[in-house]
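Colleagues,

For the teaching module next term, I've prepared a clean inverse folding example: a structure given as tokens, and then the sequence designed for it. I'd like students to try predicting residues themselves before seeing the answer, so please don't circulate the second half yet.
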């Protein structure tokens, strides 16, 4: 399975981690280069190192998703400010130093989101929010919302399990399916992004329970 990697000269640690996770990294210079190098089977996913030019890297990640429909993971230095992760345009993120097992799980999870699976159409509703479990579409008051795969999965879990408090570790296990160092930051970032996309009037649907986690509804 082939993974597009940006920048064209990725760190040795990232290249080794991708290879060790069982994927073939293919460095790309930009989105056009990713299009030229795309294998016949298509890209499994893309891994983007933010590095010293995070704005440019985020732009590349966004364009890979929008123009080539490639799921993207951004690699962020653990010392970076968390505001960097509040931006849209990527599906998941990974903190350095890179854990090979964590990278493997994340890439497999993102790749599975691209597979077409026959599923009975079920509509989940909460007030004016509707989630179509067959098409992975979300609408609020009839207006489609652009959610990443993991944002959708998190919102779906919350809608299906309202009115109880879930710890960050429980959410990580239920939604992402694994535990790893730094997991609470993953949950916090995705909750913040979900609240922003739900809008000011509906952001309060997801309540922070101090020192515990989150409650929906």
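(Answer key — instructors only)
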């Amino acid at each position: 399975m082939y993974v597009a990697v940006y920048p064209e000269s990725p760190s040795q640690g990232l290249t080794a981690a991708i290879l060790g996770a069982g994927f073939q990294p293919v460095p790309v210079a930009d989105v056009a280069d990713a299009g030229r190098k795309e294998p016949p089977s298509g890209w499994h996913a893309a891994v983007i190192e933010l590095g010293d030019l995070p704005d440019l890297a985020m732009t590349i990640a966004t364009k890979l998703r929008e123009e080539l429909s490639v799921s993207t993971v951004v690699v962020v230095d653990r010392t970076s400010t968390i505001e960097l992760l509040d931006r849209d345009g990527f599906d998941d993120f990974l903190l350095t130093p890179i854990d090979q097992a964590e990278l493997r799980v994340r890439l497999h999870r993102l790749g599975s989101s691209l597979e077409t699976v026959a599923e009975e159409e079920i509509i989940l509703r909460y007030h004016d929010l509707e989630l179509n479990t067959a098409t992975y579409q979300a609408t609020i008051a009839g207006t489609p919302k652009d959610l990443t795969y993991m944002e959708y999965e998190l919102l779906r879990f919350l809608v299906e399990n309202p009115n109880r408090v879930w710890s960050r570790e429980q959410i990580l296990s239920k939604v992402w399916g694994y535990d790893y160092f730094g997991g609470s930051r993953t949950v916090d970032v995705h909750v913040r992004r979900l609240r922003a996309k739900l809008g000011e009037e509906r952001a309060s649907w997801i309540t922070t329970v101090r020192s515990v986690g989150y409650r929906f509804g």
